[in-house]
């Protein structure tokens, strides 16, 4: 990593030379320059939202939640009172552990201006206080099949058409919840609802520019005023409590100890529709700790997060083919680094360059050794399935980054500036008037929306990178209850 070079003190009667600038030993780059480049990237990557943009965000969110309420009413499959987890950033940004192979490529600026991931529980199991034991006999680590035996007869009746059926020798029938069939049902239901909505357009309603099924994810791009919002909607199974397979993780010391409570970290987990390399796609789900990660992010310093975002921008472009490395791998390495390194070191505001170089070194180390443990289930190696050729190809690419990090940072800055220019150009061509909400008739009744927009803008500004949970009743979608991390609004 970086190493300071200081000159020796001058002998008596001589003038001491000024110290050399701090340099990175491997590349020779000036640490001060790398810090400035990271700050410049952060400035362009983190955009401030004015009242107009905040209102557009609210309008798109309101539309998505209204759509999901209508999906629930189609066949009563989804829970009547549901709790979604809204994450800033799309699936392609690594906010959840889902493979990117089946996803179409969308680019910020070209296809969208802002991106979000919304986890929508198809099933909830929230009535248990003991560790949750899943059926992992047929799966790789971090994965599980889900038998509907855990649920009541009414639930089985609703969902059995989205299950694979296994008949036992004793004549009993077991229904296993199928991620692929659930995703197919979800996409078909969303398509039906959007078709009905578009038959009766309302003033101020977002324009549905794209609806695509990407593997088991439904991606929707909405045009709202002068903004384009990408929503990656993920059907999940939601659990309260903590999985038994991750119990040993709680016994270890962690960087968040004493900063947040264990109850906040282990409040719940999900099964997301993703399978292991050799798993059965129709049956296998992947454990996701997205809710816990939201809490852990509160304990990570801003300088480390900035270095992580800059590093992520570099590797997304560089390691895009073949899609062996996900930004989620980098996120896991950052969490491991937080456990490994002293908190006062990671809190240094001017150490962004050290953190960036360290993340690159960590990622290269993981590739060379073909080893990246899942943060919550360390016995699960997320790179185990990769071939030697693939890991060495990516390791060589990272070597070029490590040899000239400044140049790769400049390239990342140019990419984000180009995306921002495309967004601004679209805004100039688009509407410059205020955007009424879908419920507005264009009169003074949109005044409450203006107040909500200002509140939303304040929440976004004060809580960068945090997620929003929403409790919504499909019979009254005009009154959502927001929760940003552990605070209600």
TrEMBL record:
UniProt entry keywords in alphabetical sequence? Nucleotidyltransferase, Phosphoprotein, Transferase
Pfam families attached to this UniProt entry:
Mab-21, Mab-21_C
Checking InterPro entries in the record gives: Mab-21-like_nuc_Trfase, Mab-21_HhH/H2TH-like, MAB21L/cGLR
Instruction: Please provide, alphabetically and separated by semicolons, the GO molecular function terms listed in this UniProt record.
Output: nucleotidyltransferase activity
Q: Which residues form the Mab-21-like nucleotidyltransferase domain?
A: 134-296
| Function as written in the Swiss-Prot or TrEMBL entry | Probable nucleotidyltransferase that catalyzes the formation of cyclic dinucleotide second messenger in response to some unknown stimulus.
Q: Which PANTHER family match?
A: CELL FATE DETERMINING PROTEIN MAB21-RELATED, NUCLEOTIDYLTRANSFERASE MB21D2
Instruction: Identify this protein by name.
Output: Nucleotidyltransferase MB21D2
